[in-house]
Design goal:
The chain contains nine helices and 14 strands. By secondary structure, the chain is of the alpha+beta class. Strand 1 and strand 2 form a beta hairpin. The longest helix is centred in the middle third of the chain and has 27 residues.
Length: 271
């Protein structure tokens, strides 16, 4: 199956907060300030692609592609597609997943506003290595592969940013695999839920955080590299402690739960 860039842009109004021109919340980076014309070479190596570009380079890249809006749970590209356009997330969050044998779906990562995804298919010419699914309403810039390659040739700083991003992602994947032997499942899950709470949580009474994302228990298990059975057992224990309240597509971290998970992410918790 091939997914082609649309011929016309569909632009949604940009909400304040995540993905806004001034600030961006990212899993590994915390709150980052967008500095417009700041020297790209001096930008921290973990700044998302879009925010590491100068304002002029962003405008140039935007002119090479089209902007499209996707509703939550829409698929941007399918694994093994022969399409090769790159996607810059201007707003929203996507799930990166891959299907293994026997129908098992491995969730590889969550990507946010400012990130570039799908760039490998455009750079190496191979098919899509993963499926990209919108977890929230998404606004994305789609750039054809040939135009992206020309842009990177004309802008060595942007090419260096892409190279650093690929390197950082490989290192982070290695660290996550190493963490499976050094940290408990509960520790990894605590870190994940607190991070999702910071990025997408809505404050509730008594200091709670409500996370409403279409992430299944299988998705959460994949993100912390454990079995669904172990994940369910851990969440059940936390519910009994009054730390979380789980719904079909939501998790509420209570005020007491936020404190407990923050402490538990630093020490050994019950598996």
């Amino acid at each position: 199956m091939s997914t082609a860039p649309p011929v016309a842009a569909v632009v949604r109004p940009r909400p304040a907060g995540l993905g806004s021109p001034s600030y961006h919340c990212h899993a590994a980076y915390g709150w980052l300030r967008g500095d417009g014309e700041a020297d790209m070479v001096s930008v921290h190596r973990r700044t998302p692609f879009w925010y590491a570009l100068t304002e002029g380079r962003r405008a140039e890249l935007r002119s090479l592609g089209v902007v499209r809006g996707y509703p939550a749970e829409a698929v941007l590209v399918h694994e093994r597609d022969d399409s090769d356009f790159a996607i810059v997330l201007l707003d929203g969050c996507v799930k990166v997943s891959s299907h293994a044998r026997r129908g098992y779906q491995a969730v590889l990562a969550l990507r946010d506003a400012g990130d570039i995804v799908g760039e490998l298919a455009g750079l190496d010419g191979d098919g899509r290595s993963a499926t990209l699914t919108a977890l929230t309403p998404v606004e994305a810039l789609l750039v054809p592969a040939d135009r992206l390659r020309a842009f990177l040739r004309s802008c060595p700083e942007a090419a260096e940013i892409v190279q650093r991003i690929v390197t950082v992602r490989l290192r982070e994947a290695d660290r996550l695999r190493a963490a499976t032997g050094a940290e408990s499942v509960a520790q990894r899950l605590a870190v994940l839920l607190l991070d999702l709470g910071r990025r997408y949580g809505v404050r509730e009474a008594a200091g709670g955080l409500l996370i409403e994302l279409p992430l299944s228990q299988s998705d959460l298990a994949g993100l912390v590299l454990t079995s669904q059975r172990t994940l369910v057992r851990t969440l059940e224990h936390w519910r009994e402690q009054g730390w979380v309240v789980t719904g079909r597509r939501s998790i509420l971290i209570t005020g007491a739960g936020r404190a407990a998970l923050a402490e538990g992410s630093r020490i050994q918790m019950s598996r």
